[in-house]
Write a sequence for this structure.
């Protein structure tokens, strides 16, 4: 049995959930026929030739660039805001625009030399950000393609609270594109989206982290564990709490269902990385269930 099979086996999906998801897909198809798809950054309507972002936003989107923290992936240098124009940025972001039109492999952009985004791989970057220097993390390593600011922040808020689950297509793709150097090294066998409490998921209709993980999983051909890990504690909203309180608030929040075993290398997926307390707590839970290396991929970093 290959490691991937092992991961797939541990995914442990129930028939009921599968049917529910199939129903969801049909609903999605009907809805997209009635309601046109929207650009995740400006919420404008997308044309057929714009699979992820509208043309205007594709030229302005800003990935985190330059040297990053070798632990959490936070930028170590000043970042430009969304929409700021410089020659270097235009060259680099054209890669994203052309890439999405051609459906190209974004690795080419990274290796093409001129004007490409520069990501220092962890071993090339010997530095930790101030937060990671101060607080040790339970996960091995992590990254995020965007800062939780401006249009990205608003987009993620609409994804979470504004019934825009479709934005996950963009964020999942961005994780696959931007995260490629890390993902290639980690070689993860299973994706675990940070679960939300069932009552919250019922209210929203979906879990935004799972929506993003499903897109990423398809992109990198890794199964997604959606049922085997759950949130058993309905925690207070983290943003109201300080670092230490966040950690205490989360203790015992997650549980791996009996009979679900984690493969060796697992990737946690979430929408926002703030202090890392959530990822750490979930990582600890996954280690207890057999994972040996737990990594993190979050759509944005606060
Ligand atoms: Zn747009
Ligand atoms: Zn860091």
């Amino acid at each position: 049995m290959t490691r991937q099979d092992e991961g797939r086996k541990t995914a442990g999906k129930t028939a009921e959930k599968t049917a529910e998801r199939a129903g969801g897909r049909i609903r999605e198809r009907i809805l997209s026929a009635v309601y046109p798809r929207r650009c995740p950054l400006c919420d404008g309507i997308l044309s057929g030739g714009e699979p992820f972002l509208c043309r205007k936003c594709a030229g302005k989107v800003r990935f985190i660039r330059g040297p990053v923290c070798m632990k959490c992936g936070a930028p170590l240098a000043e970042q430009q805001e969304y929409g700021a124009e410089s020659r270097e940025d235009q060259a680099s972001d054209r890669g994203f625009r052309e890439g999405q039109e051609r459906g190209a492999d974004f690795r080419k952009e990274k290796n093409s030399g001129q004007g490409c985004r520069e990501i220092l791989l962890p071993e090339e970057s010997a530095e930790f950000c101030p937060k990671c220097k101060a607080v040790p993390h339970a996960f091995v390593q992590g990254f995020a393609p965007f800062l939780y600011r401006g249009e990205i922040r608003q987009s993620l808020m609409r994804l979470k609270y504004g019934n825009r689950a479709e934005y996950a297509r963009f964020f999942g793709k961005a994780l696959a594109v931007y995260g490629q150097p890390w993902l290639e090294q980690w070689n993860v066998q299973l994706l675990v989206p940070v679960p939300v409490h069932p009552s919250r998921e019922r209210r929203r209709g979906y879990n935004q982290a799972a929506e993003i993980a499903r897109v990423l999983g398809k992109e990198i051909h890794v199964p997604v564990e959606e049922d085997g890990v759950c949130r058993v504690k309905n925690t207070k909203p983290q943003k109201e709490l300080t670092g230490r309180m966040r950690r205490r608030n989360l203790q015992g929040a997650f549980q791996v269902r009996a009979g679900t075993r984690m493969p060796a290398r697992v990737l946690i997926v979430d929408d926002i990385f703030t202090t890392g307390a959530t990822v750490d707590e979930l990582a600890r839970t996954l280690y207890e269930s057999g994972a040996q290396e737990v990594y993190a991929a979050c759509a944005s970093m606060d």
Remarks:
- The radius of gyration is 19 Å.
- The CA atoms of residues 28 and 166 lie 9 Å apart.
- Strands lie at 142-143, 146-147, 190-193, 229-231, 254-256, 265-273, 293-301.
